[in-house]
Amino acid sequence: MNLVKAPAAQQNALRNAKGGGTAYLLGNYVLVDLDDKPDAPSEAELAEALGLPLCELQQAKYQWDDNGRSVHYLFAGSDDYGKNSALGALLPAVDVQTGKALIFVADRKTQATNFTPPPAPPVIREILASAAPVAALPQVSKPVTPSSLDYLKRCLSHIDPDLEYQQWAAVIAGTVDRFGHDQQAFDLLNKWSAGGCKYAGESDVSKHWRSYNAGGGVTFATVTALAREGGMGGVEAFKSWCRNNPVIHSSPLSEVRGMSICGQSQQMLASLERDVFALERLVLMNQITIFFAPPNSGKTLLTVHFLIEAAKQGDIDPTRVIYVNADDTPRGAATKASLFEQYKMNMLVPGHNGFHSDDLYPLIERLISANEARGVIIVMDTLRRFFNSMDHESTKVFGELSRRFINAGGTMLVLGHTNKNKSEAGKNRYEGTQGTVNDADAVYVLDVKSSKLNDDVTKYYVTFEASPEVGGKLRGDNELSASYSFVRYEKQTYNQLINSISKVSSSDAELTEVQRSVQSNVDNINYIEHLISKGISRRTELIKAIHDGCELSRSRATKLLDLHTGENWNNGHRWRVLKGDSEAPAAKLYQLLTNHRGCPPDKTGKLVKLELVPS
């Protein structure tokens, strides 16, 4: 073959991009490039389109990739073709090139050495004729405005043009997805690419540009993500994205008429879910719900439990659950993901698989614009990872976006923290401004109580409260209050923790730890009363006697003694503490609140039920 080597700049650029090999100008030769794409034809289909027997087409094969699906065929042509390139004119994913276009001969997977290209079939002349129609390109689905082009320019300014090939191609594909085949957008892309050392010429950029279509799978979010990695702020990107996607109307009145929902009410009512609960009777479909709770109170645990139970019962489509876990350890995220995998739910974790917290808002925008929001449940864990609840502007952006999301059929659950300072009544308060609560349809403030069952086991009681007294609210038939319990102990697996969850009555959850202890430690309390009544009243000797007689650890014996020390019988107190006597003035002495007749353990060592004697 009499191929002329490409200029040094293009030669070096292609070598850097593709590895070892040599770049040539095609000149009179014709390259038929069969790309590895989903819509690419088979080799037999290509042979039929070229009017050649399959065996003759295979004789023209001179280069292929590792998997054998991307193949280059070379033919001997002429110098009077009207065009240098015709992408898609023969078949989808097939590019025909000649003249000033480049051919890159790799060092392997090739038979270019001593290769004689066969004559180009007649159809090649028709394709490359000056009057041959160019394959139609899709129209732009969104308006291309000066501001949107400026936004593209700013994004590209934060992206290194010497990316890995796949990322470089993704920038082009993502730009086509947003701007279609707009010439101004192409000029910006070509100028950006030309700033790198790997630039292989405008024809190379054009080839890739024309090979992609809007809706091909790579979106403009890829471009913004790469721009963010290059230093462009996520908030700036999101606000600019919103500004650069305007809705164009002919006049203010037509704008009002176009936005009015009057005339669509029945259609909207028919499309909306009935008041269907997504999670328990706490989260309604098509609503924004917020759970505010203290850190490590079990809000994530209970939410995971609610999702799994709803998936089991068929109340939700688990494949449309998007749990954004932005407040967890790697092990914690992996453990929860292993549960979600069983039900085909989705979990996004910042820093994994290209996802970042700043990607969530654009993702929601795309769900809305693609009409894919219906039935989707997004869980944001936790609120502070996505917006500043103390900032009115940040809260406003979240409120507007989430409201559009649920109006499009989605459901939003946000997990937030309570304020570290409780109310005057001792209740937890939500963290953030009133605007956060105003934007939600349902707000629950969680209260947590715990009770030691023994040295190693603690039972927790969590109450979801939506009353205005705690800052909650409801816009549906949700439960005003609901309580759940779970048990924690050492070396417990997450599955065991999940399985320990049960719904309990509000009265049970409202019991204080000391009141719960009165019910569960009757025998131990009676024995302590017996010890005190027999004169064992000094703290150190009393703790030792409790440890020995009740078979409790010293720490548990001390906890039980202190828990029931006080002056109020109704609050669970059973003895008071006094100052020491003359022999030991610094000692703590214990005295019963009432007169009790107790008795020691029986001969088996078991505690017997004691009878109370009124004072």
TrEMBL record:
Molecular function via GO? hydrolase activity, acting on acid anhydrides
The highest taxon in the source lineage is Bacteria
Q: Which Pfam families match?
A: AAA_25 (PF13481), PriCT_2 (PF08707)
User: Boundaries of each Primase C-terminal domain copy?
Assistant: 153-227
In terms of InterPro entries, this protein maps to: P-loop_NTPase, PriCT_2
Name this polypeptide is given: PriCT-2 domain-containing protein
Organism (species): Neiella litorisoli
